[in-house]
């Protein structure tokens, strides 16, 4: 009777969690763009355009199509220089190895420059695929939708990276940059954007502390939406200086993965449940590590080809482990071990990436924990209807993000 109440509560948590994550979804997602028609009248409101430099005013956003209705993220960095100068400044002076974002995955390189900071940090970087985004400018001869002049990224496709999209004004007076952080989400099989402020600050810091002659300031432009707080970083490039050293980026790669051995108390009595929980955490963390390692080792292989078999380790491997190992545990111990272990895996994964958890994905992960908890309860208790309900809830929890509902 008590177990029935727990199962019902977990299934309610699954339903509420999936519904709530669908409600929150949308802000941080970089979904594939729709097919773009030839640009019709822009539809961009006059009041939303901002003065930067030269003759072209900027619509300070990106869009999935040549239409303001497809607006995604806000422009957050402005360079008072043409695209060639801007790109050379970013690529030639950073401790982060910015590389051009292309369709094909290219060879990884290692960053190990930190002479001006007095420390050495080495990281591997690789090219990655990204969706097209557009921006809009208006000048003396009317409005123009712009494709990206160039894209740069810093990080691993299957891990976490900073991604820049740059748009040069037609007269070359400035280059507008949309900088955002993104990580690969294994349950959505695509990138998710947790924010745009931190990568803009990191880019800004490189020019404040580095070897390029540049003036850096922030200007309040009253930009609303697209995750903007209204402020943009403004970088004026005077000239490109040769760099004798490089700046260390501020992202803490080593995020404190400190889960101390609290599992000692009950580990003696419920060793099987503790082992099952540890195995589930290892699957989540192992898939991320394996994905980034394989991407680095085989740069010629598309990251989605690497991700496909690894996704099966999550989708099938996690419930498979629970079904195989839960019968050796008491139902309550199995439930606790599974939820704590898988939850720890999620926490370690996000902590290692160093990204904030978007609200919709946090709620979605809680729903998945509840679903796998029902699977563990049903299997350990030998209750087939409960087991089937848990597996069904897990399947729905996986299907919704793949269908772009979450």
Description:
The protein has 406 residues and is α+β, with helices and mostly antiparallel strands. It is built from ten helices and 14 strands. Strands 3, 4, 9, 10, 11, 12, 13 and 14 form an eight-stranded mixed sheet that branches. A four-stranded antiparallel sheet has the order 2-1-7-8, with no helix packed on it. Helix 1 runs antiparallel to helix 9 (359-381). The longest helix has 27 residues, at 271-297. The relative contact order is 0.16. The model is unreliable at 23-40, 104-128 and 240-263 (pLDDT under 50).
Q: What would a concise description of this structure say?
A:
This protein is of the alpha+beta class and 406 residues long.
Biggest sheet character: 8 strands, mixed
What is the terminal separation in angstroms? Answer: 34 Å
Return the structural class.
Answer: alpha+beta
Overall pLDDT confidence = 76
What is the alpha-carbon Rg in Å?
Answer: 24 Å
Number of helices: 10
Stretches where pLDDT is under 50 for at least 5 consecutive residues are 23-40, 104-128, 240-263
Secondary-structure element order, N to C: HEEEHEEEEEEEEEHEEHHHHHHH
Quote the beta fraction.
15-25%
Q: Characterize the overall form.
A: elongated
> How many β-strand stretches?
14
- Helix percent reads 40-55%
């Amino acid at each position: 009777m008590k177990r029935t109440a727990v199962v019902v509560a977990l299934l309610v948590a699954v339903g509420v969690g999936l519904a709530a994550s669908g409600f929150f979804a949308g802000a941080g997602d970089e979904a594939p763009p729709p097919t773009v028609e030839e640009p019709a009248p822009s539809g961009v409101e006059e009041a939303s355009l901002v003065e930067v430099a030269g003759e072209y005013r900027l619509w300070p956003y990106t869009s999935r199509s040549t239409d303001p209705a497809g607006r995604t993220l806000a422009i957050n960095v402005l360079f008072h220089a043409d695209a060639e100068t801007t790109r050379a400044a970013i690529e030639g002076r950073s401790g982060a190895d910015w590389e051009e974002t292309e369709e094909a995955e290219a060879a990884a390189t290692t960053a190990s420059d930190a002479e001006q900071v007095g420390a050495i940090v080495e990281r591997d970087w690789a090219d990655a695929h990204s969706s097209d985004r557009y921006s809009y400018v208006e000048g003396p001869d009317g409005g123009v939708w712009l494709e990206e002049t160039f894209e740069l990224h810093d990080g691993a496709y299957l891990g976490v990276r900073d991604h820049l999209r740059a748009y040069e004004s037609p007269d070359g007076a400035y280059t507008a940059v949309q900088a955002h952080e993104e990580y690969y989400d294994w349950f959505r099989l695509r990138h998710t954007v947790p924010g745009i402020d931190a990568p803009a600050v990191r880019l800004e810091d490189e020019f404040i502390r580095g070897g390029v002659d540049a003036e850096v300031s922030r200007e309040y432009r009253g930009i609303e939406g697209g995750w903007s707080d209204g402020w943009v970083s403004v970088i004026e490039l005077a000239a490109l200086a040769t760099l004798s050293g490089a700046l260390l980026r501020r992202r803490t790669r080593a995020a404190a993965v400190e889960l101390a051995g609290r599992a000692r108390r009950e580990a003696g009595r419920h060793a099987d449940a503790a082992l099952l929980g540890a195995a589930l955490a290892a699957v989540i963390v192992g898939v991320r590590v394996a994905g980034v390692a394989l991407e680095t080792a085989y740069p010629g292989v598309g990251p989605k080809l690497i991700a496909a078999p690894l996704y099966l380790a999550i989708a099938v491997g996690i419930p498979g482990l629970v079904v195989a190992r839960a019968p050796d545990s008491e139902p309550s111990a199995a439930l606790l071990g599974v939820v704590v272990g898988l939850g720890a895996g999620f926490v370690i994964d996000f902590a290692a990436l160093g990204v904030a958890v978007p609200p919709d994905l946090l709620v979605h992960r809680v729903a998945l924990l509840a679903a796998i908890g029902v699977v563990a309860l049903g299997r350990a208790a030998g209750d087939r209807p409960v087991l089937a309900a848990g597996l069904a809830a897990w399947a729905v929890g996986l299907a919704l993000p793949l269908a772009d509902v979450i």
